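pinned: reference chain
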Amino acid sequence: MPGGRRGPGRPQLSRSAPPPPIHATNVMTGAGGSAMQSASIRNRNGPTAVSSGVPVTTLITITPVQHPEIPLLPIDGNLAFEASVVFYLITALFLQYVNIYKTVWWLPLSPSNTAMNFYLIDPYLVVFITLVLTRRLVWSFVKEVYRDATSVTVIYCLIQLFKFALIVMVIVLSVWSIWMLFQHNSPLNLLFLAYPAVSYFLLYGLTIDLNNTVITTITNTLWPKEEILANEKLTPKITTDVQRITRHKCTHIPHEVRCEADVLKYDFNSRMKNVLFNSMVCAYYVGFVPICFLHSSMYLDLWWACLMIGFVWISSFVMFGSHFLPPRYCDTLHRCSLHLGRWQKVEHGYSNTPQHVWSESTVWPQGVLVRYQKGLYKAMGQQNVALPSDGSYARFHFVFHQPMRVLNLLVGLEISVIVVQLYLLIAHSQWNYVISLSLLLFCNYYVLFKLLRDRFILGKAYFHKEEEEESG
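pinned: its structure tokens
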């Protein structure tokens, strides 16, 4: 009321520009290897509010990121992996032909005395599909056998001669099978065979080897060559190009963390593209192409044929995913995501909370509010150096901050396929269904065993890390 006694005034907050960021002035390593970041924060009311003229300085302790040492898990080489994939695909192709060309030979008046109508199967198509399915195995053999030979011996010359003969044989058989298919089939059917080749050139261009990942070509721009050689000496030598994983550079420099995340994002996307493309090719040639060349007068169990395509697609995806995304590679992505951090955009309710201007040279602790491009963001990770408005960094952290998310996805897919196949095996009694499901289950059990072995061992390693964090 006018002239009356005024009550105690509420503290007035400065509405001027937000304070400058927390500048990372020093990163030191304390006892036990813990990292502390020294930072200075100016008063919200500006430097004039400090009577001595010296800015208020404080130490912000950022919880150090600790990575558990995961054990070295057995990894199949390229040749062993490709041989197992070829065995599975040839088995699935045989089962698809059984389901298409099956007969009822046990009936008294059956027109056929065999379990399949072999005379209706196009042998040239079988040869072409087999060559397509074994292309990766042949290329791995040509590239890896006697790759690191230092001297020319008689065995080395014989192996090189055999490689040359193998390549010539594959090329001749491919040309011969395509020519014979062109002579006995319509051009429309031949277009079905060319679809994956067109997709390949659209995705990869004129490249041949898909096992050379992007990370092997651009890692030298991020890490010095001496450091890469030191990492290779500390780790056992792996004979596969796909499994050659760049060591995680555990650094507190924000620019290097973001650069490492960019490299790993690009490499992960290229690996996923390889997984999706190869699984699509397997399902296409094993399940779909034999249906396209089916005679119009024949009966087709379309429901079961589609199930076979789905089984081959998912199983191939899991097999290639476990090969291109091994546990140690996923652990590298997990470690990078912990250093990268994540930001969550907030709208209201933080008007009285200190806010800072985001700086690209600062490692921000958890819970800090920053302003970036007219938006307010809250630090959600243990350490945060990502760009607040970059959605790719947020997706990278979401996928890999849980170290076994990719492995759990593969295990879930494989278990789902096995459960469906077991249900179909119980529900159906036709001889072709029983044979198909039994052989497919045999192959899927082997893949599931390897996934569950890795899941159990890694689960123990990461569980001990969580116990140490809770106790310490």
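why pinned: Strands lie at 23-29, 35-40, 57-60, 343-346, 355-357, 364-365, 369-372, 375-379, 383-384. The longest strand covers residues 23-29.
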